[in-house]
Amino acid sequence: MKTPNTRIAYLYRDASNYKAAGAVIVAGQITFRQVSACLDCGEFFIPQQVGWEPLQSGVAAYSGGQLNEDDHVWHELRAEDFAPTDAEPTLPCSARDVLRAFTRAHAEGWNVARYSRELGLPLEDKP
User: Fold this and answer.
1) Which of 3, 15, 21, 112 pairs with 65 at a CA distance of 20 to 30 A?
2) Of the candidates 31, 76, 23, which has an alpha carbon nearest to the alpha carbon of residue 52?
3) Which pLDDT value is given to residue 57?
4) 26 has a pLDDT exceeding 70
């Protein structure tokens, strides 16, 4: 019997509450509980720091295609965002690799300054 993969949905929400959703599928099983201790305030993470695509561009259309003062680097994960799936992985990594990436990011500290600079955003607190 094939071990199911894991679909992980994640959300970007700007300060005006415009939202963009994304998802990745990783080989193997991983749960929210496994990564929750690595998240800032139990729900926030910076996708680029774990090798995922940021979702800010999904809300930029509401501001003429540009990021603005409502934007930041933080994305959200919740328990219900993790689900088993038989779909093929969309990332070239396993659930174990994802857990390592979150653990490393948490240990190093979520790098708000670096990823804010990369996106051309001012440094701000979490949404």
Assistant:
1) 112
2) 23
3) 86
4) yes
Name the amino acid, one letter, at 100.
R
Q: What distances in angstroms separate CA 107 from CA 15, 22, 29, 121, one per listed residue?
A: 27, 25, 22, 24
pLDDT of residue 122: 74
Number of neighbours of residue 63 by Cβ within 10 angstroms: 15
User: Residue 4 phi/psi, 5° resolution?
Assistant: -70, 155
User: What residue type is assigned to position 7 of the chain?
Assistant: R
- Residue 16 CA to residue 14 CA, distance in Å, equals 5
pTM, entire model: 0.90
Task: State CA 102 to chain mean position distance.
Answer: 10
Scanning the chain, the segments in alpha helix (DSSP H) are: 32-36, 57-60, 95-108, 112-119
Give the start-end residues of each E strand in the chain.
5-13, 19-26, 44-45, 75-76, 82-85
At residue 80, the 3 state secondary structure works out as: helix
- The letter for the amino acid at 26 is V
- pLDDT band at residue 125 using 50, 70 and 90 as cut-offs: low
**The two three-digit tokens of residue 82, written as one number:** 């993790």
